[in-house]
Amino acid sequence: MAAKPGSFTPLLGLATALMVALAGAAVWALAALWRNGDLCLLALPLGVLIGRVLQRHCGAWRGVGAVFAVVFSLAGSAYALGLIASARVAMLMGMRLSDTLGRIGADMALAVAWARLDRLEVASLIAAALLAGGVAFWRSKPRPLPFGQETDPRGG
């Protein structure tokens, strides 16, 4: 039995949102290392982007999309902060990042990242996760079709 044309859209949306979270976290970590700070406020636009991807792809399953948006936002934040902490430890030890990650492990990297956060940064991470869920849950108004077009080619 063949799948319907739009049946994999939520799965594609989840995969896309996860990749957006991880790629955005890597860019966030790079910017934070360049500026020599954690830059936790970058979690807010990342959360909006994750939420927007899931809002677009999950459609009627917007509650599930909102839950995944919160989870992906928190995972992206943890990934970015773990990368930042690992890079700082690598610089202090005079080692390559890949060697440092193998030696200290993810638990130590996240412990170092957590120890460096202050209340405002924790609040921005929580706000970013809630913002991602809110954007994913929000139902946008349908856009009018262009002049002369009777059906939406995207299936909406």
TrEMBL record:
Keywords: Membrane, Transmembrane, Transmembrane helix
Keyword Transmembrane helix: yes
Domain of life assignment: Bacteria
TM segment ranges: 66-91, 122-138
Protein name: Vitamin B12 transport system permease protein
